[in-house]
Specification:
This protein is an alpha+beta fold. It has two domains: 49 residues, no CATH class; 114 residues, Thiol Ester Dehydrase, Chain A (Roll). The protein contains four helices and eight strands. The strands form two sheets. It has a six-stranded antiparallel β-sheet, with helices on one face. Belongs to the thioesterase PaaI family. It holds the Pfam family 4HBT. It comes from Arthrobacter liuii. This is Thioesterase domain-containing protein.
């Protein structure tokens, strides 16, 4: 068992060979109970846990999550640009995966981001909105804002939707 400090709470992660091993991880990340069956065998991913991403809303059309600045900064003491992209890709990929549905999965094929302003403390909120939800492609725009609602960055991700093997 690996123990990771996320914000002010302690989150225990276990291996993915234990049935229901990720129940605590999913609950700590804010994943709604009705989605635990979908993610129960995989969890939210080690990077999501490390970054402290916490989901507030989840659907193919709109997914919202927060991420702390603390622990995700670059050498100048501001939120790392890559952290913005991690939050954006996480939200877009989860949304696309929900749209793909049972027996299918989403694979990111393109992501880009523009950074508008920096942030040195507090929480960042990412709001992911569907631009296109098709049979083979899903594209989402993700806007990261600070507590005052100021836009920090804008990202776009396109995911290829594929059938599961086997």
């Amino acid at each position: 068992m690996v123990v990771s400090l996320t914000g002010a709470s302690l989150v225990a992660m276990t291996d993915n060979f234990t049935p229901g091993a990720f129940a605590e991880e999913l609950a700590a990340a804010g994943i709604p109970d009705h989605m635990h069956a979908w993610l129960g065998g995989f969890g939210v991913g080690a990077l999501v846990v490390k970054m402290g991403i916490h989901f507030l809303e989840m659907s193919p059309e709109r997914t919202v999550a927060t991420m702390p600045v603390e622990g995700n900064t670059q050498v100048a003491g501001i939120l790392h640009g890559g952290a913005h992209v991690v939050l954006a890709e996480t939200l877009g990929s989860f949304s696309a995966g929900m749209h793909a549905g049972p027996g299918r999965h989403a694979v990111g094929i393109e992501v880009n981001a523009t950074h508008h302003r920096s942030i040195a403390r507090g929480l960042v909120t990412g709001t992911c909105t569907a631009i296109h939800l098709g049979r083979t492609l899903a594209t989402h725009e993700i806007v990261m804002t600070d507590a005052q609602g100021r836009r920090l960055s804008t990202a776009r991700i396109t995911n290829l939707l594929r059938d599961n093997a086997g």
